[in-house]
Design goal:
Blueprint (H helix, E strand, L loop, with lengths): L2 H4 L2 H9 L5 H19 L2 E4 L1 H16 L11 E5 L26 H8 L3 E6 L33 H8 L5 E6 L5 H7 L2 E4 L19 E6 L2 H11 L17 H9 L7 E5 L9 H16 L3 E5 L7 H16 L20 H12 L2 H14 L5 H24 L2 E5 L15 H5 L6 H6 L3 E9 L7 E8 L5 H19 L10 E2 L2 E2 L6
Parallel strand pairs: 2-3, 2-4, 7-8, 7-9
Antiparallel strand pairs: 1-3, 4-6, 5-6, 5-10, 9-11, 10-11, 12-13
The structure holds glutamine.
The site of glutamine has 13 residues, from loops.
Length: 514
């Protein structure tokens, strides 16, 4: 594998800024890597080699002209296909948007371009971000670089696989109920769901508007923090965007890496763990909690009794909002349109297009959501779920009076086999047991690798530690995650992903490469 693809975003940007390597060379190395391994992985739905190389050339020219470049200038990135990008196909993993090319950039796309970040292409995802495995993509599943027979998590599984397989050092994911954190956990990456409103949703194709939030996936905490600083901050084009400065995230990551957590109060959430969780996941989690104490944190157990109801509440609120948001795919405005060939009526065109254009999980949620919102049922279902949401918010508020951050495993399970859960919606939904409370409350949460589970699969697979913080205290997540990362790297003697059975050529092999 090319050495350039092994480097972190910080290392790459440093070398580019110092003129040791050009952005064009860095981009080409990643495009070569994609050409070599993506046939086996299917992390990308669209690779924009020409656009990426042209953008890299611009960065090189700006550097040559003596311009001061941003901290991620010239660094390549995989963009989840739910984020619109001018001139590049954006499908949301759905047949209904096949062939649609957006005429504008999402705010985060524009901010990344302005920062000199190179967009390599669009990453695969569960259709409309509904799922935990990327198997709901209309374009076929993505595979986990740790074990090609397993899923890379979802719905941002193309993003996670691309970064874990060294196709890109950075990716953008979106998280409605866990879709950044769970894919990060099961592929051994860092993934952060920002405070709701902390990152603009303008140009993010909506699934559940009161929950959706874009955020970074990276191989290190510092890389994730730097990307978050680029995309975060107020945007007048998004009415739910918070008009407050982004906390100093990279600084928090750097200070956390020094490894001193004395004075920090950590709450272990009693309700997130125990029965139904895999043994290797719980083992790694316990060791991570012990590590936090070793680093000086004061660890206590905290009870958040309403977290037990997060799953049913989420699976009423998210489908309800999706049933409304997805009404715009009516065959009139974007993408697929069926029925014109035999002069079908307006309703018939809509019905045929939506029948053929949406996959089974999307249809299930539209039906569920429409039912939950219908008159006579609204109070019993949607209204009740919103009340539960308030109770979950109160659990967080009460907990944050006693502690600074809350921790849990990111997911009850390590990466599972392709085909294992996709036919059983409940088996898929429980992947998000630990991530849903922070989504419903809008608070920030990060997943950082905390070890390998040897007991839950024939080969060791990554486990994630989730760190949740109060609204707008995203910096706390980065600080704690960086402390864990630095301590574990020091113990292992090398960065986490060096343990991964890295893909070479189009096939997987095992063995550390450092
Ligand atoms: N897996 C959850 C769902 O299917 C969360 C998805 C997400 O965060 N986009 O809804």
């Amino acid at each position: 594998m090319d050495e350039l693809t092994r480097m972190t975003a910080v290392e790459l940007a440093g070398q580019i800024a110092a003129g040791q390597v050009s952005a064009a060379e860095v981009t080409q190395a990643h495009l070569d890597r994609i050409a070599a391994v993506d046939p086996a992985l299917h992390a990308f739905l669209h690779v924009d080699a020409d656009g990426a190389l042209a953008a890299a050339k611009t960065v090189d020219e700006r550097r040559a002209a003596g311009e001061r470049l941003g901290p991620l200038a010239g660094v390549p990135l995989a963009l989840k296909d739910v984020v619109v990008s001018k001139g590049l196909p954006t499908t949301c993993g759905s047949k209904i948007l096949e062939g649609w090319v957006p005429p504008y950039d999402a705010t985060i796309t524009r901010r990344m371009k302005d920062a000199g970040i190179i967009i390599l292409g669009k990453a695969n995802m569960d259709e409309f971000a509904m799922g935990s495995s990327t198997e709901n993509s209309a374009y076929g599943p993505t595979r986990n670089p740790w074990d090609l027979t397993r899923v890379p998590g979802g719905s941002s599984g193309g993003s996670s696989a691309a970064v874990a397989a060294f196709q890109a050092p950075l990716a953008i994911g979106t998280d409605t109920g866990g879709s950044i954190r769970q894919p990060a956990a099961v592929t051994g990456l860092v993934g952060h769901k920002p405070t709701y409103g902390g990152v603009s949703r303008y140009g993010l194709i909506a699934f559940s508007s009161s929950l959706d939030q874009a955020g970074p996936l990276a191989r290190t905490v510092l890389d994730a923090a730097l990307l978050h600083e680029v995309i975060g901050g107020h945007d007048p084009a998004d009415s739910t965007s918070i008009d407050a400065p982004v906390p100093a995230l990279a600084e928090a990551a750097r200070s956390g890496a020094a490894g001193d957590l004395s004075g920090l109060r950590v709450g272990v959430v009693r309700e997130l763990g125990g029965e139904g969780y895999q043994a290797g996941v719980l083992d790694s989690f316990r060791q991570a909690v012990a590590l936090l104490a070793e680093l000086g944190a004061e660890v206590v157990e905290v009870s958040c009794p309403h977290f037990d109801y997060a799953l049913p509440a989420y699976y009423l609120i998210a489908p309800s909002e999706c049933s409304s948001n997805l009404a715009r795919f009516d065959a009139m405005r974007y993408g697929l349109r069926l029925g014109d060939e035999d002069d079908a009526s307006l309703e018939e065109v809509m019905s045929r297009t939506r029948a053929a254009g949406f996959g089974p999980e999307v249809k299930r949620r539209i039906i569920l959501g429409t039912y939950a919102l219908s008159s006579g049922y609204y109070d019993a279902y949607y209204g009740q779920a919103q009340k539960v949401r308030t109770l979950i918010l109160r659990d967080f508020a009460a907990a944050y009076e006693r502690v600074d951050v809350l921790v849990s495993p990111t997911s009850p399970f390590v990466a599972f086999g392709i085909g294992e859960r996709v036919a059983d919606p409940m088996a898929m939904y429980v992947n998000d047991l630990c991530t849903l409370p922070a989504s419903l409350a809008g608070v920030p949460a990060i997943s950082v690798p905390c070890g390998l589970s040897a007991s839950d699969s024939p080969t060791p697979l990554p486990v994630g530690l989730q760190v949740m913080a109060p609204t707008l205290a995203d910096d706390r997540c980065y600080r704690v995650a960086a402390a864990v990362e630095a301590a574990l790297d020091a113990r292992r003697g090398h960065p986490f992903l060096a343990d991964a059975p890295a893909l070479t050529g189009a096939t997987a092999h095992t063995g550390a490469t450092r």
